[in-house]
Structures are given as C-alpha cells and as structure tokens.
Amino acid sequence: MSIDVNNESGTEVDERAILDVARYALARMRIHPLSELSVIVVDAEAMEQLHIQWMDLPGPTDVMSFPMDELRPPAKDDDEPPQGLLGDIVLCPEVAKQQGEAAPTGHSMDEELQLLTVHGVLHLLGYDHEEPDEKAEMFGLQAAIIDGWRAERGIEGASPAPTIT
Fold first, then answer.
1. Tens of pLDDT along 45-74?
2. DSSP codes, 39-60
3. CA-CA-CA-CA torsion sign (114, 16, 4, 43)
4. d(C-alpha 62, C-alpha 13), whole Å
5. φ and ψ of 145, to 5 deg
6. Angstrom distance (rounded) from CA 51 to CA 60
7. Are 134 and 118 a contacting pair, CB within 8 Å?
8. Which H or E run contains 38?
9. Which tens digit of pLDDT belongs to each residue from 36-45?
10. 149 near 115, Cβ under 8 Å?
11. How far apart are CA 136 and CA 81, in angstroms?
12. In the chain, is it the N or the C terminus that has fewer CB atoms within a 10 Å radius of its CB?
C-alpha cells in the first residue's frame, strides 16, 4: 500500500498513526495492496477554501475526501480486489482538536484525526452518511475499524464517539 502523509498545517500531528490507521483501514476493507492514497493535513484557512470551493459551504471542516479511481471493496471474499489510485483525504487538525474536546467522551486531536482518517477512507470507498441507514452502516464500520486498529496495537479505551456531522 502506498500512502503518503503530507503535513502542510504547521501543527504537529502523529503522522505515523495517521499512516498506520489508513493502512489498517484499507487492508480491513480488502483494498489491493498496490493501491495509492494521499493524506494531506492543512490549516483552517486552506480547509475553508476547499470547503467553499467543493461544497459551497462556509468555514473550515474536519475532513474532505477526493476520490480518483472509485475503487470499492470486493463483493465476495474470493474476488481479487482491483488496484488503483484511491484519491486524497484532507484533514484539518484545528477542527479535529475542537471536535475532540467537544466530544462527549473527550479525546485528543490525534485520536480525532485517526477517526477522521478512517472516515475519509470510507468516503473514498463510496460510503456516505446522508441517509440514516447509510450513516448507521458507515459509522458502525468506522467504529469497528478504529476498535480493531486500537486492539491490535494494545491501545486502551473505546473508540472516540463520532463527531462528524
């Protein structure tokens, strides 16, 4: 799996954890090991510009996903997954910090960025949360991936509560 993490935000983030959780999520979703992903960490101003340009919404947001090859998890366990360029995930640590602090369980900016990375991966794979059933599926899968990743690494604590709106 080729995953690039590029921190342009000026904020220190745990790039290793972002890379690791992205790799875990893609493996868990059975995405071809030669597929490519880019994760870009930007400041609030840059995120706001992207949010306005692509969503026509004011203010910065937490995560945006820009799919490229529209890769999907294989339908059956014995199907060979296609390889390709997944796309870009853009994260904003300033918004992640605010959301982590505001979450009912309270968690760190880095924990929120890990959650947002998985959220972004799922968006790249075609998952969405516009409808209640889609939201239940996506957020359930997101929690299972985070929990699995944390368990494999011996990280204590439950998954951060999803704060994505």
1. 999 999 999 999 999 999 999 988 665 565
2. EEE--HHHHHHHHHHHH---S-
3. positive
4. 14
5. -65, -50
6. 6
7. no
8. strand 36-41
9. 999 999 999 9
10. no
11. 25
12. C
What are 107's two structure tokens?
Answer: 């968690």
**Could you give phi then psi for residue 55, rounded to 5 degrees?**
-115, -10
Question: Under DSSP, is residue 16 helix (H, G, I), strand (E, B) or coil?
Answer: helix
Helix count and strand count (H, E) for the chain = 5, 4
Kindly state the tokens that stand for 34. Answer: 């030669």
Task: Give, rounded to a whole angstrom, the gap between the first and last alpha carbons of the chain.
Answer: 29
Residues 60 and 94: their CA atoms lie apart, in Å, by 9
pTM of the model: 0.87
Structure tokens at 162: 């999803």
- Rounded Cα gap, residues 75 and 85, in angstroms: 19
Q: Put the strands of the sheet holding 85-91 in their side by side order.
A: 2-7, 36-41, 85-91, 63-67
- In tens, the pLDDT along 23-37 reads 999 999 988 888 899
